[in-house]
Write a structure and sequence with these properties.
Blueprint lengths: L3 E7 L4 E7 L5 E9 L3 E9 L5 E3 L3 E2 L4 E6 L6 E8 L3 E8 L6 E3 L5 E6 L4 E10 L3 E10 L15 H9 L3 H4 L9 H6 L12 H17 L2 H14 L15 H9 L5 H6 L2 H11 L1 H4 L6 H9 L3 H8 L2 E2 L2 E4 L1
Parallel strand pairs: 10-15
Antiparallel strand pairs: 1-13, 2-12, 3-4, 3-7, 4-5, 4-6, 8-9, 8-11, 9-10, 12-13, 14-15
Helix pairs in contact: 4-5, 10-11
């Protein structure tokens, strides 16, 4: 299959980078970067189909700081992002599992992001380089095992069929019995408990209806339980999460879909949890790096907007620059 080029971004100086692609059947296993104010050089190490390790010659000059980004087994490169101007000022590497630190300086008038098409991976680079990396783009290729990627979704439909067959078994409805004072009705309608095995939505609606009945019965234990259910379901005034650098309207909407609508809620989430959420949402969201979001949100939740602005002054797109 033909390789596809995306980019480049950067200046028009230096010499062309041509043919910088790993062999068919190989995968990129490590990337070496040297940097200072700009990206000075990039070198790719790859593992071939037999498991042997090889290195392509580096392109660019010599930098003050050397970095090494190593990919784990089963991990593959899907894109790059960064900033550029006359040269490539900074760069970060995106895999199917995570995003590397940002290497380089904090300048650059243009923000770029190149991601491989679905079921493809990065197999090389092109652009221009001499003393620095003047411009960079990615070369992508369909993954050989791409057709197997969608298979795990098939078993998802099975639990619903199982739930209908086992809904009448007393064990499945045992937990629902204490919540319903009318035991006979719960036993006669076991199908209402079945969706709880596969979907969360019916579960949240059922307690709401039961709580209203308990309140009408004026029973002390029932009132306390229904009150507790109402408090959980009560809407919380959302914060403007777009005040967090790195979060735009689409990401704010995604976070809200997962119950994160306040600064306090965002501060309580770990960077790993947020990264998993972004990766699961698709490649466009995977470009974002949530490493600093919880720290930014903690300052906003405390009302320390001056501290938040001071922290954001040192960031680029929500990321800390790495030299």
């Amino acid at each position: 299959m033909e390789d596809v080029k995306l980019g480049p971004s950067g200046g028009d100086g230096g010499l062309p980078i041509e043919g910088y692609v790993i062999p068919s059947g190989a995968r990129i296993s490590e990337i070496e970067v040297t940097s200072g104010w700009y990206i000075d050089s990039i070198r790719v190490i790859y593992t071939d189909a037999e498991g042997a390790i090889h290195a392509l010659p580096g392109f660019g000059g010599n930098g003050s700081y050397a970095h090494r980004f190593t990919l784990e087994p089963g991990e593959y490169l899907i894109g790059v992002s960064g900033r550029s101007g006359r040269y490539v000022d900074s760069i970060a590497f995106h895999t199917n599992l995570r995003v590397s630190p940002t290497y380089g300086g904090d300048s650059g008038e243009v923000s770029f992001s190149f991601l491989a098409p679905e079921d493809s991976e990065v197999v090389g680079f092109f652009g221009r380089a001499d003393w620095y990396v003047d411009a960079i783009g990615i070369v992508t290729r369909p993954r050989p095992d791409a057709t197997a990627a969608s298979v795990p979704e098939a078993p998802v439909a099975k639990p619903r069929k199982t739930a209908k067959k086992t809904a009448a078994v007393p064990v499945e409805t045992a937990e629902a019995a204490p919540k319903t004072r009318k035991g006979r009705k719960a036993a006669q309608q076991p199908a209402t408990a079945a969706p709880a095995l596969t979907e969360a939505a019916p579960t949240t609606e059922k307690p709401a209806k039961k709580s209203k009945k308990r309140a009408a019965a004026a029973s002390a234990p029932s009132v306390s339980e229904s009150t507790r259910a109402v408090e959980v379901a009560a809407p919380v005034t959302p914060d403007n999460l777009e005040l967090i650098e790195g979060i735009g309207p689409k990401i704010a909407e995604l976070l809200a879909q997962h119950g994160i609508t306040t600064f306090a809620g965002l501060a309580a989430a770990s960077a790993e949890q947020l990264r998993s959420l972004l990766l699961a949402a698709g490649r466009r969201f995977a470009v974002s790096d949530p490493t600093t979001w919880p720290a930014q949100a903690a300052l906003a939740a405390q009302g320390d907007m001056d501290g938040l602005k001071a922290m954001q002054a040192e960031l680029k797109g929500g990321r800390k620059a790495k030299y």
